Amino acid sequence: MATMYCVKCRAKRDDENAEKVTMKNGKPALKGKCPVCGTTMFKIGAK
User: Fold this and answer.
1) C-alpha to C-alpha distance for 24 and 27, rounded to whole angstroms
2) Cα distance between residue 38 and residue 8, in whole Å
3) What is the Cα–Cα distance from 15 to 23, expressed in whole angstroms?
4) Is 36 left (phi over 0), alpha (psi -120 to 50) or beta?
5) In the prediction, which pLDDT does 46 show?
6) Cβ distance 16 to 4 under 8 Å?
7) pLDDT of 24
8) Residue 1 has what pLDDT?
9) pLDDT, tens digit only, all 47 positions of the chain
10) Which long-range contacts link 29-33 to residues 24+ away (Cβ below 8 Å)?
11) Considering just the CA atoms, what is the radius of gyration of the chain in Å?
């Protein structure tokens, strides 16, 4: 489970289905969807 910030809801949300991704610059991140509004959320630098 990962806690990420949803820009649309302006609140921190938990996402159980967050997946680890690597951005173009090589930094690790988590990518998930907001359970309330469905917007894509990111957490940069997460391992």
Assistant:
1) 8
2) 9
3) 19
4) alpha
5) 76
6) no
7) 96
8) 79
9) 789 999 999 999 999 999 999 999 999 999 999 999 999 999 998 76
10) 30/2, 30/4, 32/2, 32/4
11) 10
Q: If you write DSSP's letter for every residue of the chain in order, what string do you get? A: -EEEEETTTTEEEEETT-EEEE-TTS-EEEEEE-TTT--EEEEET--
Max Cα distance, the chain (Å): 30
What is the reported pTM? 0.76
Sequence-distant (6+) residues with CB within 8 A of 24 are: none
| CA 29 – CA 37 distance, rounded (Å) | 21
